[in-house]
């Protein structure tokens, strides 16, 4: 029997193989918490085999087992759980001599755990609580049916553990095994447990806006049921217990979602699975607030209502079978027939179904248009529009529109309306019936034309200076129009069938009397028509002369061939700009014309009638532009360099520097000029004449220019008794300036400053007998030194003489 068990365990475990001398091998096949089964290869000459299990890290004694020489598999029992053992195999002969040996290391399984309790919370699972054992890395839960037709093992990491995949309300035998690296322990003592019943499958519906019906199929092995209902957005619960399979909840809010949880109890008092379904109640009945007949080409109605809670859509239905659907608080029902009296009601919908229909709201549609209209004129000018009666009408509005746009309306409950009809017009008559819904969408229009009469909207328009265009509205019945333009004894005629006539070749600036006479074969011409006065355009003025009055102003003289009330407009058109000048006399002045430009000047006369033809043009050339910038730079004490920017239209320039002492000029084609005879220390006014190629001249004035201070004269150098040097000079400028004195010697250089009004400057000399180059220059505003003063050279002897010697390029003299 032991051999058979070993063979069975070989199907599950193979942990290690060890090979020794003579090719003997040792392998461990099965491990439990208190035993190990090993297998080995046979050894020739061996009469017995000895297996020793020695704990590696435990003070416990080794365990021995001995087998015959024909055995190749055996078990060692009485081992300690969760312990590492060295398994040694020895092959021995009859004298117990060891022929060969082999060993391997293996760990026993953990101890067998014990189950505390097992219970079921869901219909497909059982939870097992067990005692944890030392050394176990995981556990295996085993579930078996009592009939043996179901077997399931499931690994868990800790207690409690749950076996899933079970059948509802079924008995199972449960056991637990501990697992480590060595293997699994023996199963624990089994315990029985039963799964709970399944949840009832709830079916919900809402037959009204305040109730929900819940039904379900009976749950096997259930003795009663528990329902919990919660309103959406609320924490209040309604709990009901029942043995029935149907439940109705009343007094609920309309259009509100409720969630219902259903559970079943078995005979042991255990509650099974739970299932939650949500159901919305039907919406409340909406109230129709307004029904309006919609305007437009297609007749329809717009239905408005108050939206209700929980409704997802609405449907409006009319008493004649039309409907509309929408998610909004209104909808349109199209089309509708005119002259109808119906009602409409609204139903709200959601997932639960429709609400009760609203109270019907009555409405009537627009009345139908009048079918037969005619005009009666018993006497001239006394007309009446007449029509047939239309059903569902409260009153009528008749519109009589004349072809010139004049319109009259008549509001009446009768079927006739009087109006004054004037000769020579076409009348468009239409009648609109009205009721509570409004008026008909259209009306038939009847045209009625009276006898011809004089045109009342004659227009005489000046289309050119000597041509009048006469236009008027056509007169019903007129076959020919005769148009005349009379001036003293001269009469022009124009006969045409069209309501337009052009009277040409008239005299300019002349008033004419224009008459339009309509004619027909039956009635002849209406000679009572009122004439219309119109004047032709003024005659064209001519330019006599153009003169320049200022740098940018020009006066233009013209002829005045028209009446004194005529306005004259003179236009000066340049390449990029245009200027206008208006006058009622024979002269007009342009001001602020741009310099350096050429304009085409044209004169036009205008009156209330219109404008004349433009007169012959003349060319006007404005003076050249002044240079925008002029710079005057002093080159020497008596010479300056003048530069300027080019002026538009200027070919040559005259630059002028003017002072009380005189002026300097230069005439050049360039934009610069070198000018002499300049006085030092003098304020100059700067002028320039810009001259065009045709001789037009523009006088330009710029900011003044001041020459530098004059260099001093009579410069002398003295040697004083205290070995100092004194430089003396005479000032040439009328204004007092500070002066700077610079001495450049072969041995040393000296500088001193003299205040305004002083004529000398003292310098302490370091050595005697030196030659000095002396420069005395005035210092202007902001410390600017005049650079044009020439140096003078002096030779200063040592003590014994009190004068220097002036050395000049041209001559040499002692002063």
From TrEMBL:
UniProt xrefs under SMART domains: FN3
Keyword Signal: yes
Domain Fibronectin type-III: 20-111, 112-198, 199-288, 454-539, 540-625
Upper classification of the organism: Eukaryota, Metazoa, Chordata, Craniata, Vertebrata
Protein's recorded name: Fibronectin type-III domain-containing protein
InterPro entries: FN3_dom (IPR003961), FN3_sf (IPR036116), Ig-like_fold (IPR013783)
Signal sequence segment: 1-20
SUPFAM superfamilies: Fibronectin type III
Protein species of origin: Characodon lateralis
């Amino acid at each position: 029997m032991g051999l058979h068990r070993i063979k069975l365990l070989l199907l599950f475990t193979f942990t290690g193989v060890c090979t020794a001398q003579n090719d003997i091998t040792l392998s461990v096949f099965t491990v439990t918490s208190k035993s190990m089964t090993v297998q080995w290869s046979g050894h020739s000459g061996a009469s017995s085999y000895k297996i020793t299990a020695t704990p590696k890290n435990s003070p416990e004694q080794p365990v021995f087992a001995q087998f015959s020489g024909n055995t190749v598999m055996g078990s060692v029992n009485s081992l300690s759980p969760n312990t590492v053992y060295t398994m040694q195999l020895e092959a021995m002969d009859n004298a117990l001599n060891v022929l060969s040996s082999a060993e391997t290391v293996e760990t026993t399984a953990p101890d067998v755990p014990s189950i505390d309790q097992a219970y079921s919370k869901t219909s497909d699972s059982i939870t097992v609580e067990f005692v944890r054992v030392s050394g176990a890395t995981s556990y295996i839960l085993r579930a078996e049916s009592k009939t043996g037709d179901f077997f399931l093992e499931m690994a868990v990491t800790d207690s409690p553990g749950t076996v899933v995949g079970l059948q509802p309300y079924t008995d199972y035998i449960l056991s637990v095994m501990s697992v480590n690296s060595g293997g699994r322990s023996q199963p624990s003592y089994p315990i029985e447990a039963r799964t709970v019943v399944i949840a009832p499958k709830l079916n919900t519906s809402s037959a009204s806006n305040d109730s929900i019906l819940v039904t379900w199929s009976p749950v096997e092995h259930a003795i009663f049921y528990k329902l919990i209902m919660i309103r959406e957005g609320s924490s209040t619960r309604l709990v009901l217990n029942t043995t029935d399979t149907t439940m109705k909840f009343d007094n609920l809010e309309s259009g509100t979602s409720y969630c219902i949880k259903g559970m079943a109890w078995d005979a042991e008092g255990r509650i099974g699975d739970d299932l939650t379904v949500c159901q919305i109640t039907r919406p409340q009945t909406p109230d129709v607030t307004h029904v309006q007949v919609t305007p437009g080409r297609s007749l329809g109605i717009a239905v408005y209502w108050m939206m209700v809670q929980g409704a997802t859509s609405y449907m409006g239905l009319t008493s004649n079978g039309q409907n509309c659907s929408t998610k909004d608080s209104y909808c349109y029902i199209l089309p509708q027939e005119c002259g109808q009296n119906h009602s409409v009601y609204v139903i709200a919908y959601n997932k639960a179904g429709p609400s009760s229909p609203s109270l019907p709201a009555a409405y009537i549609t627009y009345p139908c248009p009048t079918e037969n209209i005619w005009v009666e004129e018993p006497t001239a000018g006394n007309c009446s529009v007449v029509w047939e009666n239309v059903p569902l009408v409260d009153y009528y509005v008749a519109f009589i529109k004349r072809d010139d746009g004049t319109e009259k309306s008549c509001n009446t409950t009768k079927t006739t309306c009087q109006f004054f009809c004037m000769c020579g017009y076409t009348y468009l008559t239409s009648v609109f019936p009205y009721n509570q819904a409004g008026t008909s969408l259209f009306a038939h229009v009847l045209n009625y034309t009276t006898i011809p009469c004089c045109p009342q909207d004659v227009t005489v328009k000046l289309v050119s200076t000597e041509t009048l265009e006469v236009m008027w509205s056509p007169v019903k019945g007129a076959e020919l129009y005769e148009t005349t333009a009379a001036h003293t004894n001269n009469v022009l005629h124009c006969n045409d069938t069209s309501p337009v006539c052009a009277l040409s070749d008239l005299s300019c600036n002349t008033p004419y009397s224009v008459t339009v006479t309509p004619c027909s074969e039956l009635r002849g011409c209406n000679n009572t028509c009122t004439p219309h006065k119109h004047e032709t355009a003024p005659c064209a003025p001519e330019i006599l002369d153009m003169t320049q009055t200022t740098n940018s102003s020009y006066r233009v003289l013209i002829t005045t061939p028209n009446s004194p009330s005529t306005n004259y407009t003179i236009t000066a058109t340049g390449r990029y700009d245009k200027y206008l000048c208006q006058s009622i006399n024979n002269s007009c002045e342009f001001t602020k014309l741009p310099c350096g430009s050429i304009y085409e000047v044209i004169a036009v006369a205008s009156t209330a009638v219109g404008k004349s033809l433009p007169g012959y043009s003349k060319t006007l050339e404005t003076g050249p532009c002044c240079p925008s910038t002029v710079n005057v730079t002093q080159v020497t004490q008596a010479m300056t360099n003048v530069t300027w920017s080019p002026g538009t239209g200027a070919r040559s320039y005259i630059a002028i520097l003017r002072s009380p002492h005189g002026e300097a000029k230069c005439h050049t084609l360039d934009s610069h000029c070198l000018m002499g005879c300049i006085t030092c220390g003098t304020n100059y006014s700067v002028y320039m004449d810009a001259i065009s190629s045709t001789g037009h001249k523009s006088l330009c004035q710029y900011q003044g220019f001041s020459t530098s201070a004059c260099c001093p004269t009579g410069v002398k150098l003295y040697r004083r008794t205290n070995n100092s040097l004194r430089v003396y000079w005479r000032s040439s400028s009328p204004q007092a300036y500070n002066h700077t004195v610079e001495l450049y010697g072969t041995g040393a250089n000296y500088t001193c400053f003299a205040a305004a009004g002083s004529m000398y400057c003292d310098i302490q000399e370091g050595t005697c007998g030196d030659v000095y180059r002396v420069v005395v220059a005035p210092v202007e505003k902001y410390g600017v030194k005049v650079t044009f003063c020439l140096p003078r050279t002096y030779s200063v002897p040592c003590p014994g003489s009190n004068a220097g010697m002036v050395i000049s390029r041209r001559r040499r003299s002692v002063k």
